[in-house]
Design goal:
mainly alpha, globular, 131 residues, single chain, 7 helices
Length: 131
């Protein structure tokens, strides 16, 4: 719950500029940081993705890119392919929104492929519309 709430809140903070969403996102990062201490395997990629979204919100683009990439790598290495798909999707959106579509579209296409393999048909349809 903490992970999805945090991702949603950070996206809403970017879109609405409302401080309440930022606070929820920051709290999610703090909680996930504690969870990583109990299981790097399960929570490392989630923490990195939350941090990437927070860095994006704070316009710290170099750090955001590093954390998106870290999340993708961790999810891949730990075989969380659905979470790798999500990390690639959010990284792709980040790149497209920041005028780096040449790099972003391949990330979105890889996310699409991962979602297909996972069987997330509606997610595939939704992402196809975005691309």
């Amino acid at each position: 719950f903490v992970f999805f709430e945090g991702i949603s809140a950070l996206c809403l903070a970017r879109d609405t500029k409302q401080e309440k969403w930022r606070q929820i996102g920051e709290q999610s990062v703090r909680i996930m940081s504690q969870l990583v201490e109990y299981s790097v395997w399960n929570f490392e990629n989630k923490l990195s993705l939350l941090q990437a979204e927070l860095y994006y919100l704070n316009h710290r683009h170099a750090m955001a890119e590093l954390k998106y990439q870290a999340s993708i790598t961790s999810a891949y290495n730990h075989r969380f392919f659905h979470e790798e798909a999500m990390a690639r999707e959010l990284y792709g959106i980040y790149l497209v929104e920041n005028k780096m579509a040449v790099r972003g579209i391949p990330q979105l296409e890889m996310a699409l492929d991962k979602y297909k393999k996972w069987g997330a048909v509606r997610k595939v349809d939704s992402l196809k519309e975005f691309i």
